[in-house]
Amino acid sequence: MRIGEIAAVVGVTTRAIRHYHHVGLLPEPERRPNGYRAYSVRDAVLLARVRRLTELGLSLDEVRDVLADDAGRDLADVLDELDADLARQEAEIKERRRRLAVLLAAGPGEGEPLSPALAELLARAPRTTSPTAAKDREHLTLLDVPGADGQEIYTALGAVAADPAVLALYERLDELADAPVDDPRIPGLAAELVAAVPDEVFAAIPRDGTVVPGFKEALLAEYAPAQAEVVRRVMEAFIERGRG
């Protein structure tokens, strides 16, 4: 096989193969009289193993150590492993297609890949044209990742999402879009927003949680100055309340 052919068989790029040669991870095969590399089945098996190990997150140095430990294995054993690897890929592709089918069946605008807990929470929220309400709902997806404790928080927010009074608070926040940063409505609105959040939400927030540096500034930058001042006060009140 030539380099393009082995790349197609294993599912890597020719650039990656040349890099593996350069760092000594993949031995250079013999060359034909015309100068082209001639790859064997064993080269393909080794390359497939390198691809699999790198997909698992191993560095190239770690891959080299693993391959050294496997030196001398029978080709049949390595081929069995390659077959199992292909079966794993096939199962992953089927699962991805299943998820895609669910999104396609949901129709335009309803196919967001959300967790069941967040999808249920948003379904309970009344329809609105409020820009700040829509923005806040988008921010909830930041909790929809592993390790973010979003599921418990979504459950605690259920009553808030269905409360028309909370939507009215968002509409008041919308009214501050063109207001100055010292607008007298800011303190009262911030206090009402904080009071609208039930204690269960704060109980669901990890005590040892950390805020990514720069996140607060990035979040506030999405709002108009007066709105950002409300959000800033709410965030600070949340921090204090969470410490209590």
Beta percentage is under 5%
Total number of helical segments?
Answer: 14
Helix residue percentage: 55-70%
The count of domains is: 2
Pfam families: MerR_1
Organism: Streptomyces yangpuensis
Domain HTH merR-type: 1-69
Protein name: MerR family transcriptional regulator
Could you characterize the architecture of this molecule?
This protein is elongated. Residues 106-111 have low confidence and may be disordered. It is mainly alpha-helical and 244 residues long. The chain starts with a helix and ends with a helix. It has helices at residues 3-10, 14-22, 41-55, 60-69, 75-106, 116-124, 131-139, 150-156, 158-161, 164-174, 185-196, 199-204, 215-220, 225-243. Helix 1 (3-10) packs across helix 3 (41-55), helix 3 (41-55) crosses helix 5 and helix 11 (185-196) packs across helix 14 (225-243). Keywords: Coiled coil, DNA-binding. This is MerR family transcriptional regulator. Residues 79-106 form a coiled coil. It comes from Streptomyces yangpuensis.
Tags for this entry?
elongated; coiled coil; Multidrug-efflux Transporter Regulator, Chain: A, Domain 2; MerR-type_HTH_dom; mainly alpha; 244 residues
